[in-house]
Design a protein that fits this description.
Shape of chain B: globular
Oligomer: heterodimer
Helix content of chain B: 25-40%
CATH architecture of chain A: 3-Layer(aba) Sandwich
CATH superfamily of chain B: Thiolase/Chalcone synthase
Order of helices and strands of chain A: EEHEEHHEHHEHEHEEEHEHEHHEEEEE
Structural class of chain B: alpha+beta
Number of strands of chain B: 8
GO molecular function (chain A): 3-oxoacyl-[acyl-carrier-protein] synthase activity
Keywords (chain A): Transferase
Radius of gyration of chain A: 20 Å
Low-confidence stretches of chain A: none
Radius of gyration of chain B: 18 Å
CATH topology of chain B: Peroxisomal Thiolase, Chain A, domain 1
Number of domains of chain B: 1
Number of strands of chain A: 17
Number of helices of chain B: 10
Distance between the termini of chain B: 30 Å
Strand content of chain B: 15-25%
Strand order of the largest sheet of chain B: 3-2-4-5-1-6-8-7
InterPro entries (chain A): Beta-ketoacyl_synthase, Ketoacyl_synth_AS, Ketoacyl_synth_C, Ketoacyl_synth_N, PKS_Beta-ketoAc_synthase_dom, Thiolase-like
CATH architecture of chain B: 3-Layer(aba) Sandwich
Mean pLDDT of chain A: 97
Protein name (chain A): Beta-ketoacyl-[acyl-carrier-protein] synthase family protein
Low-confidence stretches of chain B: none
Domain Ketosynthase family 3 (KS3) (chain A): 1-395
Order of helices and strands of chain B: EHHHEHHHEHEHEEHHEE
Mean pLDDT of chain B: 97
Chain lengths: 397, 268
C-alpha cells in the first residue's frame, strides 16, 4: 500500500502529558502505576491514573460533552502541538477533507455509572443534566472532537475493545486511499471507570501488583487510562530520515471465545501476516515488536506462541504496559506512538516490572531498553471478542 | 461542495429485520407498495449457529445483528466463514448496560464476568465470529444516528481496498428505563448488505455512493419514515426501498451534518 506519514503524534498517560515524559519513561524504564484498593469489593490492584481530570471541566461552549473521557481527549490534543497542526490542516484542506477516526472501549460510561447513583428515588429517573450523546455514547469522543474543531468531514468511532485504536489506523488509511479525505486525526481515548475495574477483576485478570508482561510469574493486567492522537496523511515530496510512516496494517478475528485468546494465537498470527503483506515486508525486515503483552497468563502465552511461530526468536520484542498500564481502547494508538518514538529516536523499549522473561515463550523478550537503529517496527493490539490488529511502521530514511 | 469520489460496489444480498418487517421478502413487498405496512414488534430469531448455552442467552443486539447479517449472506449464497464484516450500531446491549450500572451503583459493586464481556460494543461481532468461524477482518463502528452511513462508507472502502466481498451489518436495539428516556429507541432493527467488488450471478444492483450535502430522502409512507427515524440502523431504508422497487434511482441517506450520503442504484 501507499505509505502514509505519521505527521504529528502525542500521548497523555499516567507518566505525564505529551511525548517527552513517555520518552523519558521508555528510556529510563520507569512506571507510572500505583496501587488501588477498595476494601470488601474485590478490588486490590494497580492502575495508571491521570491526575487532575476531576478538576478540569470542558470549556462552557463544549459543556454538552463534559465527561472524564472527553476531558482527557482535549487535554491530550493540546500537547505536542497536535491541535495546532490539526488547525493548520483544516485551513489548508478545508473542514470537509479532514476525517476523524478514533477508538474507545468505554467512552464516557463513567458519567452513566455516576448518574445511576443519583436516580430519583421515586421514579428511578436519571438526574436531569444527564446527556447521553455527549457522554455515554460510544461516538461521543469523535462527536466532541468534530465539534471542538468545527470539522465537517467523515467521522466514526471504532470500538473493538483493546484493538480499537490500532484499527483506526487501518480504517483511516482506507479513507485516505479512497480519496474521501486528505488528512485523518486518528487516536484512542479510554478513561478509568467502574465497568472496567470491576469487569476485569470479575474475570480474575487484574493483578494485585504492577503488571509484569511476559514474566514467568505474571499475574494479570494493570488498567490504565490514556489518550493518544496522530495526524495521518500522504507523505510530502521530501521527508526527514527520522520521519515515521505507516506501512501496513492487518486485521483478523479469532472465532474462538469472547474473553480468551485463541490458545495458539492463530488470529494474532493472521493479523501480523496481513500487516507484513500490506507493508510488502518479510519477517526479517522487522526490527522491533511492541507486543500486546497485557501480562495475563493466557494473553502473553497465546501472543508469544504466534510471534515465535512467525518470527522465531530473532526479533527483539517487548510490552510497554508496565509503564502505562493497559489503556484498553487507547492502547493501540499509544503503542503506535511508542513504535514511532523508537524508530525516530533509535532505541528498543524494555519492559519495566518484568523480572525474568517466561522461558516457556521462545522469543527475544527485551527486559531493558537499549540503543539501536530500528528501521521497521510492528505493534500488536488484540481485544475481547477476538478482534486482532497489527500495524507496521517504518522510518522514511 | 467539490465533487466527492464515487465509491461503488454490487449488492449481492439483503437482510432486514424491523418492527412489522420480519424479513426481506415481506419488506420488499411493503417497500414496493404492494402490501400495506402493519406495525408489529420485531421478531428476533435465536442464533442457531451458536452453541446451545450461548444461543439461549443471546441478547437482543446479538440476535438482531446475527439474524440480519446471516439473512444477507444466505440471500447472496455466500458462506459467512470467508467474508469480512463491518458491524455498525449506535448502541451496545442496552439491557446489559442497565444491569451493570445498577450493580455498580449498589453497595456490592462486583459484576458478573459474562455481563462484562457482553457490555462491549463489539460483542455481536465476537459472537458472529464464533458462530460462523469467520477469521476475516471485522470492524465495529459507532457514529450515533449516522451509524448506518458510517458503516456503509467503511464497507465500501473495504471492498475497494481488498477487492473482496464485505458484509455490512447495521443494527440497534432499545435501552430499558431509565436510559430509554435519554436515548429512546423503540425496538430492535437491523439491515445486512453483502457488498462485492464485481458483478456476480446473485447481484441485485450496483450502487454508487458519494458524500453530498443534499437533503436526506424521506420515505413516502409516514409509518415507514417514522421507523427510519426511530431506529438509527433503519436510516438505510431509502436505499432498501430502491432495491425493493428494482428501479434505477438515487436516495440521500442521513450522515453527519452537513454531510449526507447520496446513493445511486442501478438494478441488474
Amino acid at each position: 500500500m501507499t505509505p502514509l506519514h505519521l505527521a504529528h503524534h502525542t500521548v497523555t498517560s499516567c507518566v505525564g502529558d505529551g511525548l517527552a515524559p513517555l520518552r523519558n519513561a521508555l528510556l529510563a524504564g520507569t512506571s507510572g502505576l500505583k496501587p488501588y484498593h477498595i476494601e470488601g469489593l474485590g478490588l486490590d490492584t494497580w492502575i495508571g491514573e491521570i491526575a487532575g481530570l476531576d478538576d478540569s471541566p470542558l470549556p462552557p461552549a463544549l459543556a454538552a460533552y463534559d465527561c472524564r473521557n472527553n476531558r482527557l481527549a482535549l487535554r491530550a490534543l493540546e500537547a505536542d502541538g497536535v491541535a495546532e497542526a490539526l488547525r493548520e490542516r483544516i485551513a489548508r484542506h478545508g473542514p470537509r477533507r479532514i476525517g476523524i477516526v478514533l477508538g474507545t472501549s468505554t467512552s464516557g460510561i463513567l458519567s452513566t455509572e455516576l448518574a445511576y447513583r443519583q436516580r430519583d428515588p421515586q421514579s428511578g429517573a436519571l438526574p436531569p443534566g444527564f446527556f447521553y450523546p455527549g457522554t455515554h455514547s460510544t461516538y461521543s469522543l469523535a462527536a466532541f472532537v468534530r465539534e471542538a474543531f468545527a470539522l465537517e468531514g467523515p467521522a466514526c468511532v471504532v470500538s473493538t475493545a483493546c484493538s480499537s485504536s490500532a484499527k483506526v489506523f487501518a480504517a483511516a488509511a482506507r479513507l485516505i486511499r479512497a480519496g474521501l479525505i486528505d488528512v485523518a486525526l486518528v487516536g484512542g481515548v479510554d478513561s478509568l471507570c467502574y465497568t472496567t475495574l470491576h469487569g476485569f477483576a470479575s474475570l480474575e485478570l487484574t493483578a494485585a501488583e504492577p503488571c509484569r508482561p511476559y514474566d514467568a510469574e505474571r499475574k494479570g493486567i494493570s488498567i490504565g487510562e490514556g489518550a493518544a492522537f496522530a495526524l495521518l496523511e500522504r507523505p510530502p515530496a521530501s521527508l526527514d530520515a527520522g520521519a515515521v510512516l505507516l506501512l501496513g496494517s492487518g486485521e483478523s478475528s479469532d472465532a474462538h471465545h469472547m474473553s480468551s485468546p485463541h490458545p495458539e494465537g492463530l488470529g494474532a498470527r493472521l493479523a501480523m501476516e496481513a500487516a507484513l503483506a500490506e507493508a510488502g515486508l518479510d519477517v526479517d525486515a522487522i526490527d522491533y515488536i511492541n507486543l500486546h503483552g497485557t501480562a495475563t497468563p493466557n494473553n502473553d502465552a497465546a501472543e508469544g506462541c504466534a510471534v515465535a511461530a512467525l518470527f522465531g526468536a530473532r526479533v527483539p520484542a517487548s510490552s510497554t504496559k508496565g509503564i502505562t498500564g493497559h489503556t484498553l481502547g487507547a492502547a493501540g494508538a499509544l503503542e503506535a506512538s511508542v513504535c514511532a518514538l523508537a524508530l525516530a529516536d533509535g532505541f528498543l523499549p524494555g519492559s519495566p516490572n518484568t523480572r525474568s522473561a517466561d522461558p516457556a515463550i521462545p522469543i527475544d523478550y527485551l527486559l531493558a531498553t537499549r540503543r539501536a537503529a530500528p528501521r521497521h517496527a510492528m505493534s500488536n493490539s488484540f481485544g475481547f471478542g477476538g478482534s486482532n490488529c497489527s500495524l507496521v511502521f517504518g522510518r522514511a530514511g | 461542495m467539490s465533487a466527492s469520489p464515487l465509491l461503488s460496489a454490487w449488492i449481492d444480498g439483503v437482510g432486514l429485520i424491523a418492527p412489522g418487517l420480519p424479513d426481506w421478502s415481506t419488506a420488499c413487498a411493503v417497500l414496493a407498495g404492494q402490501d400495506a405496512f402493519a406495525s408489529a414488534p420485531s421478531v428476533l430469531p435465536a442464533p442457531a449457529l451458536l452453541p446451545p448455552a450461548e444461543r439461549r442467552r443471546a441478547s437482543r443486539v446479538v440476535r438482531i445483528a446475527l439474524a440480519s447479517g446471516l439473512a444477507a449472506l444466505d440471500h447472496a449464497g455466500l458462506d459467512p466463514a470467508g467474508v469480512a464484516t463491518v458491524f455498525s450500531a449506535s448502541t451496545a446491549d442496552g439491557h446489559n448496560c442497565h444491569a451493570l450500572c445498577e450493580t455498580l451503583a449498589s453497595d456490592d459493586q462486583r459484576v458478573s464476568p459474562t455481563r462484562f464481556h457482553n457490555s462491549l460494543h463489539n460483542t455481536p461481532a465476537g459472537y458472529w465470529s464464533i458462530a460462523t468461524g469467520a477469521m476475516a477482518a471485522s470492524q465495529s463502528l459507532c457514529a450515533h444516528d449516522a451509524s448506518f452511513a458510517a458503516g456503509l462508507l467503511e464497507a465500501l472502502v473495504q471492498v475497494g481496498s481488498s477487492a473482496a466481498s464485505c458484509t455490512l451489518i447495521a443494527y440497534d436495539a432499545e435501552y430499558p428505563a431509565p436510559l430509554a428516556a435519554a436515548r429512546p429507541i423503540p425496538d430492535a432493527g437491523g439491515i445486512g448488505l453483502v457488498l462485492s467488488p464485481t458483478q456476480g450471478p446473485r447481484s441485485l444492483a450496483q450502487i454508487s455512493v458519494n458524500l453530498s450535502d443534499s437533503p436526506v430522502t424521506a420515505l413516502a409512507d409516514p409509518q415507514l419514515d417514522a421507523l427510519r427515524l426511530a431506529i438509527p440502523a433503519l436510516r438505510g431504508l431509502p436505499l432498501l426501498e430502491l432495491l425493493a422497487t428494482r428501479r434505477a434511482g438515487s436516495a440521500v441517506l442521513e450522515y453527519l451534518a452537513p454531510l449526507s450520503l447520496q446513493v445511486t442504484v442501478s438494478p441488474c
